């Protein structure tokens, strides 16, 4: 991988909490974990993907929604995401320089929060994110909300254009913006063919 964001000795890694593990949330988590940020995903597995079958996801001929999710989960797990399946996030508070994210199991803190809870916009509302006149969370192309460090992605930012490919793009855009902010320069996650050997070398050798 060409652009890993690694913390040098003694330097704390930036951390990201993603709320929601559908296509939008897992896409964000893939990019941030793959590039060295400490990444946690909380998910309650009510993704619409369990009702879907994809014929319209470019590059994929035909795949069941649940099967798509199983592959996506394996992919983020392989890149080191701490995926907390079955743990609903109840509240998010802004604390000194970051966020305190509460579940029934306790409180986790992070520098950034990516909201990816489908059409459920409650956490965004509680955090004080601005909404548009069509009552969706107001973001720009980088998925930044009006609250510093909080990103919103997927179904919650669109009145109707609900497609897996769009949600995955939103998650990627949020993650790249976080990575650019952490690094202080525009970040590109560009891999080249030799990276496949490095990443999957042991698997390919088997
Ligand atoms: C019947 C049906 C068919 C569809 N067919 C297609 C299709 O053919 N092609 C296509 O591209 N799209 C299709 N879609 C749409 C597609 O499923 C959505 O666009 C996509 O799932 C949206 O992704 P998302 O990540 O924004 O939200 P979701 O996939 O809804 O994921 C949100 C996740 O957040 C979790 N969550 C919510 N609140 C919390 C919380 N407080 N704490 C922790 N986790 C939380 C939920 O459990 C869920 O797992 C279909 C949808 C439906 C309903």
TrEMBL record:
GO molecular function: oxidoreductase activity
UniProt keyword annotations, A-Z: Flavoprotein, Oxidoreductase
Pfam families (alphabetical): Pyr_redox_2
Gene3D superfamilies linked: FAD/NAD(P)-binding domain
Location of the FAD/NAD(P)-binding domain: 15-120
Protein name from the UniProt record: FAD-binding protein
Originating species: Natrarchaeobius halalkaliphilus
């Amino acid at each position: 991988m060409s652009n890993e964001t690694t913390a040098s000795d003694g330097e704390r890694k930036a951390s990201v909490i993603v709320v929601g593990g559908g296509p939008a949330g897992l896409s964000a988590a893939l990019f941030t974990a793959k590039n060295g940020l400490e990444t946690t995903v909380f998910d309650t597995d009510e993704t619409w993907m369990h009702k879907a079958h994809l014929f319209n996801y470019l590059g994929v001929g035909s795949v069941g929604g649940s099967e798509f999710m199983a592959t996506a989960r394996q992919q983020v797990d392989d890149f080191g995401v701490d995926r907390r399946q079955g743990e609903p996030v109840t509240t998010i508070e802004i604390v000194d320089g970051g966020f305190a994210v509460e579940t029934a199991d306790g409180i986790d803190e992070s520098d950034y929060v990516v909201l990816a809870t489908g059409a459920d916009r409650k956490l965004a509302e509680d955090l004080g994110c601005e909404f548009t006149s069509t009552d969706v969370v107001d973001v720009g192309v980088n998925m930044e909300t009006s609250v510093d460090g909080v990103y919103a992605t997927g179904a919650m930012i669109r009145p109707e254009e609900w497609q897996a490919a769009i949600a995955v793009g939103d998650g990627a855009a949020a993650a790249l913006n976080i990575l650019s902010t952490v690094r202080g320069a525009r970040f590109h996650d560009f891999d080249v063919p030799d990276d496949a050997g490095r990443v999957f070398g042991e698997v390919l050798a088997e």
